[in-house]
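W.,

You were right to be curious about this one. When I first looked at the sequence I had no strong expectations either way, so I just let the prediction run and decided to look at it fresh. Below is the sequence, 357 residues in total, followed by the output.
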Amino acid sequence: MEIKESLLTNEKDELSVKDIIKKIKMLFYFLKENFVKLIILTLFGASIGFLWAYLSKPIYTAKVKFLMKESGGNAGLLNSLGSLGSLIGGAAGVTSPLDRTLAILGSERIIGAVLLKPLEINQKKQLAISHFIDIYDLKNKWKKDTTLNGLKFELKDSTFMALTSKQRKAFRKIVGTFIGDKSTVFFRSFDKKSGVFDFSIVTSSEYFSVEFSKLIYKEIDKLIYEQSISSSGKNVNILSNKLDSIRSALSGVQNQLARNTDRTLGLLMQEDKVQQKSLMIKEQMLTIMYGEAQKNLETFKFLNQSINSGLELLQYPYNPIVAERKSIILFSFIFGFFTFLISFAILYLRHWVKYNL
């Protein structure tokens, strides 16, 4: 019984080896028969990849790097208040300038404002959004859209409120190409250790990439400066009101002390000494608080006059920018390789059907 099973196993092994050899021979025969076809089809696919890479528009990347200093802007002003910070309120919980900048960089507030700014490229002055429409030929792409077909942006359309409903639809679409992790036009990053931000504008127009990135930086710098001025101005007003309150309280205590002295002609009864001593201690405390508040207010006003956004430019884009093109070798190889695989599969399937059915 065991001998029979052994013989059957050997026969199966011999058959499987024969099948493998037969399939290898068929494969070689197939390659020999279709070698020229596969070469021609592969070269055809590679040529398509070559033309695709050769005819593709070059890409221009304009990069901006800047440093957000913790000591800059409103944060530095609030830190200067020292021990009196509790008087104005909110100093301890102020948002970090780094977090604030990270939140607004690449937001619709910044990108939208820049898109509606005038920009001159090749002696043609129009809104940045109009240049973007021309660069990517969006007018032709919008022809099938009844709402956006024939849409134009004029120089007077420089604010969102001035836009029509049709313009707002186009505006939202274009802003959407800049915002989000999937954007292929706008890229941004932030190094928490160094406090360095960088962002890039990537388009097929060298001048647009450069000028648009410059406008973004200017808009960020302007916005942070305005926020710092507004916040510090409010803090000056709060501190001034606190100073007035201390002055009023001090004046009231001093008047009460004077009235008590006048009433007793300088001779105090034992029962009045406790109240008089309490008023004197209160007067001393208010005098110290008033002097400290006055000093900090003057310091705060001085710093307020020299306030800045806290941004320090590290890298600014300028012409010319080295163009980035699709690799001709890489695309030729990819197209040729996939053409070979598809052609091989189709031809082999036809070959198998021919000899097996």
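Here's what jumped out at me. The CA atoms of residues 39 and 169 lie 50 Å apart. And, maybe more interesting for your project: The chain has eleven helices and six strands.

Coffee later to discuss?

I.
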